[in-house]
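Morning. Coffee machine broken again, so started the prediction first thing and wrote up yesterday's gels while waiting. Chain of 266 residues, entered below exactly as on the submission form.
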Amino acid sequence: MAIELIVAFILLGAVVGFLAGLLGIGGGLVMVPVLTALFVWQGMPVDNVVHLALGTSMASIVVTSVSSMRAHNRKGGVIWDVVRMIAPGIVVGAFLATFVASMLSSVFLASFFACFLVYASSQMFLNKKPKPSRTLPGRGGLFAAGGVIGSISALVSIGGGTLTVPYLSWHNIDVKKAIGTSAAIGLPISVAGTIGYIVNGLSVDLEIPYVVGFIYLPGVVLISVMSFMMAPVGANLAHKLPVPVLKKVFAVLLLGLALKMISSVL
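Came back before lunch.
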């Protein structure tokens, strides 16, 4: 593996961890477009670069999810009853979505991801928050909601916070507990998505060293380690820097990443 690629993974992991701690965002929004560009740069098959980016990103989120879940649980911010009821739908939705992703072209996946980035960017820039107006549904309703959240999260390789926090807030869950519960939900999403991308990638002969399924192992290790190390740094600075302003700047950056991802696969 080229030294330039190793450095790129280390820098990406550092940025992802820092932003996760500072802004509370999932790393997939940054990782997928950057990994896509890196894989194209390395001459990997264009037909599968987005699949590799999604799988590698999803596997990298597992470590971050565990760390985030433990931190929120220590502060009593996780509603475990909700996690237990929504997790089965999350797992089914995330796992099955990887089968759908494996059948889609890199161009379609890149376009879908770019559209999601535009949505996430607009929500972040405008700081739009849903008006709480109802209570959580029962087990069946939460299973269905989990299926939708898990499916979309696996298709765009995120921990689900972009979808879960607004959903829980919409149902009158305190925002701090919504964030904590979302962090716990991120673990089954990332684990189910990782397994799905491994299973679906095994049938594709990519002939790339260190690749298992649609997951590039060196990228997962380097990104995870650096992300884990840098997340506390971002969290500490969150109390000292103008986070609302930084969110708007990051929202503009997301739009740039959306354009870069589309251009990488075209």
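The beta strands are 211-212, 215-216. Going to sketch it on the whiteboard this afternoon.
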